[in-house]
């Protein structure tokens, strides 16, 4: 009787849900001016949230404002401290609360210190940058639906704060946890949009100062080119991803399959958060959002699934300014001087007086003193550099996500990309229930054609553009402007006709290299250098991925289960290529130098199974050796057989064990592990783990240079026992397909779980699943939601 009663109660809940959604009050339009800064949303909004296993909320509402309300409420319940910290950032108030010299978490910009972060975001506020974007009519600006969702999100976040006690020790009782406005939400979206442009140059924007009387050295072309290449190299990025779509030609059902595996931070404001969002008759989507965003960003619905990978397109360019000899704050364009615009801002500082600084802006963008600490761009008496970031005029990312959420096919995904043009720094990989696969590098990129770069590059740009895709154009010539494509939604960017696209290939895969080898049998070419390279060496992760997925496609009859096996195969391509040769050379070195005591190491390398599972003995030794080796030996000297564009997946190969640095990398790794008290053949999971609730959870996976699909970047602490945590890595994983029924077949996993609050039951639950290579069966259809044994229904509303 209890079971039948429960089923009846759940059925009634479902009926009441639809009735309640229809009775929700209509949304009211929010103001688009600065008043949103002063008056948080005060509408009577509400939503219904059904929680299933692992704290995944299924949010149902009548319209976008109410859906935003439920989303803001549910995100705050899981991540209030992380969210509040991000709002302190975009308000320019970190120095006020945390001191000027502390470092932000890096989720919303590259600022090294709170002070530079505050100066930048205070400048964004003073200029009214986001307000102007909100006032721009769609499609160049955000749609009314997205504006309503931001209004609702702010109201939901505020309502949760007003009606609940914060228990997370990271911010319990903190005065910086306070209500937000829709404009705060939009500013957070702006910060995400410019991460690859202005966000990468925050320190350089806020430190740029006119030269004094002392001479200033000019930028060194060779050093700058090397620094730019390293700065924009995919294998050096702090984020990455894998994604593969299989067409129906390769699957058991004749329908598409998608495996998405983003490698994002495990802490801070760039975490993913899971939900299902439903507006009856309008929207029904499940997946993950970046914290503080209002719509599912990667996910699936009943007809289509998609994921993103960080792209190689360079989202900024530089203009070299010829300065007026009489005034270093004026620059010449076609011989006529133009004065820079001063943006003077003042930020409050904890324990001291406010700090006031001036930023300098030009027709091209802000003057910068460098891109990060390694790439200085000196402002001398004759020359300065201005940064162009087209994503500073792009607040369309959420509209792109909304278009995907409502798509019925990969054709609709492509149509959204062409129409909205809102993705700043990612590729898109998608599959649908009709059996189509899809890839596109549809980014908002500065319109740097190879012709323009050839005609207008300065001497510095002639070196940096081929090496890294960073164009340095002659800012003294008006004819060196970026121009416009007729099909572009904003000036100065590429239109969709120029974007690399691959449709209906047996597989379409990306692992953060350029679009070239999305499918090794159908290489993509013909795009401009700023998008990425062609016929150049691929990363080991790309090579291993293409080997794996092409073999899967050839084998055919694929299912979601095959995607799950690929995700946790944990094959180390570097091991396949190099471990045997390393073990052989180790044995020779041990015989030659018995005093080194290498015999045990040689045996461990030889017995290692070339995987990074938690029980893989010898994996940790190879990992520590390999990191040392690739850091000390140039790529051209690492392999005996060089790269060949005719065989890009299998070359280069054959480890050059005679390379200077091989012996020291090996002996250094052995000494390091022994000093830390770690056995050379210890199982990986014994010394690669995450600590949750005082318990070590062993972790599989491995670093970028090993080439592993299931990438994690663990944090080394020899005193703590090895790798004691993860900075970035596999995050929101989804394996999605269709079997002809009404519901998608989906398995998901959020590796770091929904909540950052140690007291939450969803602080570690999915991390335990990840440790054990287990998955969550997604509950998308109504019958599955109502059938959840963990079902908890919560009606949330403003008071």
Tell me about this structure.
By secondary structure, this protein is α+β, with helices and mostly antiparallel strands. Helices cover 34% and strands 21% of the residues. It is built from 24 helices and 29 strands. The strands form 6 sheets. It has a 10-stranded mixed sheet, sandwiched between helices. Strands 3, 4, 19, 24, 25, 26, 27 and 28 form an 8-stranded antiparallel sheet that branches. Strands 9, 10, 11, 14 and 17 form a 5-stranded mixed sheet that branches. A hairpin with a 2-residue loop joins β9 (317-324) and β10 (327-333). The chain starts with a helix and ends with a strand. Residues 1-5 and 17-42 have low confidence and may be disordered.
Distance separating the two termini: 38 Å
**Average pLDDT figure:** 94
| Global Rg | 27 Å
Strand content: 15-25%
Q: What's the count of strands?
A: 29
Strand order of the largest sheet: 18-16-15-8-7-6-5-2-1-29
Helix fraction, binned, reads: 25-40%
Overall shape: it is globular
Structural class: alpha+beta
Q: What's the story with the biggest beta sheet?
A: 10 strands, mixed
Number of helices: 24
Which residues sit in consecutive blocks of at least 5 with pLDDT less than 50? 1-5, 17-42
Brief synopsis:
The protein has 799 residues and is an alpha+beta fold.
């Amino acid at each position: 009787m209890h079971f039948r009663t429960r089923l009846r109660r759940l059925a009634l809940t479902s009926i009441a849900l639809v009735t309640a959604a229809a009775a929700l009050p209509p949304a009211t339009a929010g103001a688009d001016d600065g008043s949103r800064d002063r008056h948080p949303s005060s509408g009577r909004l509400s939503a219904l949230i059904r929680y299933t296993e692992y704290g995944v909320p299924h949010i149902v509402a009548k319209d976008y404002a109410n859906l935003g309300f439920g989303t803001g409420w549910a995100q705050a319940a899981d991540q209030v401290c992380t969210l509040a910290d991000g709002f302190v950032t975009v308000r320019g108030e970190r120095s006020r609360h945390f001191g000027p010299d502390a470092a932000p978490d890096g989720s919303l910009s590259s600022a090294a210190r709170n002070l530079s972060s505050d100066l930048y975001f205070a400048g964004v506020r003073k200029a009214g940058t986001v307000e102007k974007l909100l006032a721009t009519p769609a499609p160049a600006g955000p749609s009314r639906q997205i504006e309503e969702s931001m209004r609702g999100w702010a109201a939901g976040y505020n309502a949760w704060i007003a009606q609940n006690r914060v228990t997370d020790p990271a911010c319990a009782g903190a005065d910086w946890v306070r209500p937000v406005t829709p404009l705060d939400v939009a500013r957070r979206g702006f910060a995400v949009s410019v991460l690859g442009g202005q966000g990468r140059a925050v320190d350089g924007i806020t430190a740029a100062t006119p030269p004094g009387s002392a001479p200033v050295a000019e930028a060194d072309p060779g050093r700058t080119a090397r620094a730019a290449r390293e700065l924009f190299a995919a294998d050096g990025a702090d984020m990455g991803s894998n994604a593969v779509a299989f067409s129906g030609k390769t699957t058991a059902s004749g329908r598409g399959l998608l495996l998405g595996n983003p490698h994002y931070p495990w802490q801070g404001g760039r975490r993913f958060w899971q939900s299902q969002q439903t507006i009856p008759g309008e929207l029904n989507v499940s997946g993950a959002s970046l914290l503080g965003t209002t719509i599912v960003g990667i996910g699936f619905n009943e007809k289509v699934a998609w994921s993103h990978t960080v792209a190689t397109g360079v989202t900024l360019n530089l203009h070299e300014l010829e300065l007026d000899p009489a005034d270093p704050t004026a620059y010449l364009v076609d011989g006529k001087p133009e004065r820079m615009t001063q943006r003077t801002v003042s930020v409050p500082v904890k324990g001291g007086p406010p700090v006031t600084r001036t930023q300098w802006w030009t027709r091209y963008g802000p003057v910068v003193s460098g891109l990060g600490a390694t790439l200085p761009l000196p402002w001398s008496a004759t020359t300065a550099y201005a940064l162009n970031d087209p994503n500073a005029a792009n607040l369309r990312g959420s509209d792109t996500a909304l278009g995907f959420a409502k798509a019925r096919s990969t054709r609709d995904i492509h149509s959204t990309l062409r129409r909205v043009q809102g993705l700043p720094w990612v590729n898109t990989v998608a599959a649908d229930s009709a059996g189509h696969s899809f890839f596109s590098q549809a980014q908002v990129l500065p319109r740097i054609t190879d012709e323009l770069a050839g005609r207008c590059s300065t001497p510095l740009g002639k070196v940096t553009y081929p090496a890294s895709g960073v164009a340095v154009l002659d800012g003294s010539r008006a004819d060196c402007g970026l121009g416009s494509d007729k099909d572009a939604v904003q000036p100065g960017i590429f239109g969709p006709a120029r974007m690399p696209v691959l449709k209906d290939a047996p597989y379409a895969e990306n692992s953060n290299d350029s679009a070239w080898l999305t499918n090794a049998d159908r290489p993509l070419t013909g795009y401009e250098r700023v998008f990425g390279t062609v016929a150049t060496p691929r990363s080991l992760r790309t090579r291993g991925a293409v080997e794996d997925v092409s073999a899967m496609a050839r084998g055919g009859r694929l299912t979601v289960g095959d995607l799950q096996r690929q995700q946790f195969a944990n094959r180390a391509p570097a091991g396949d290529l190099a471990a045997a040769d390393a073990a052989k050379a180790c044995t020779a070195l041990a015989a030659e130098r018995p005093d080194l005591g290498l015999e045990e190491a040689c045996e461990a390398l030889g017995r290692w199974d070339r995987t990074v599972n938690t029980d893989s003995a010898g994996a940790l030794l190879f990992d520590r050796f390999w990191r040392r080796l690739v850091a000390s030996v140039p790529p051209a000297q690492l392999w005996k057989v060089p790269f060949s564009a005719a065989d890009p997946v299998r070359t280069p190969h054959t480890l050059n064990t005679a390379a200077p640095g091989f012996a020291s990398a090996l002996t250094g790794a052995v000494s390091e592990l022994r000093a830390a008290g770690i056995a050379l053949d210890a199982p990986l999971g014994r010394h690669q783990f995450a600590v949750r609730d005082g318990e070590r959870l062993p972790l599989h996976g491995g670093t970028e240079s090993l080439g592993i699909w299931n990438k994690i970047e663990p944090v080394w602490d020899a005193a703590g026992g090895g790798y004691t945590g993860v900075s970035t890595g596999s995050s929101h994983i989804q394996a999605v397909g269709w079997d002809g029924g009404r519901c998608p077949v989906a398995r998901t996993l959020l590796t770091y779980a929904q909540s950052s609050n140690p007291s939450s039951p969803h602080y570690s639950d999915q991390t335990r699943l990840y440790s054990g290579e287990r998955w969550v069966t997604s509950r998308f259809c109504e019958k599955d939601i109502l059938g959840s044994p963990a079902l908890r229904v919560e009606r949330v509303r403003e008071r």
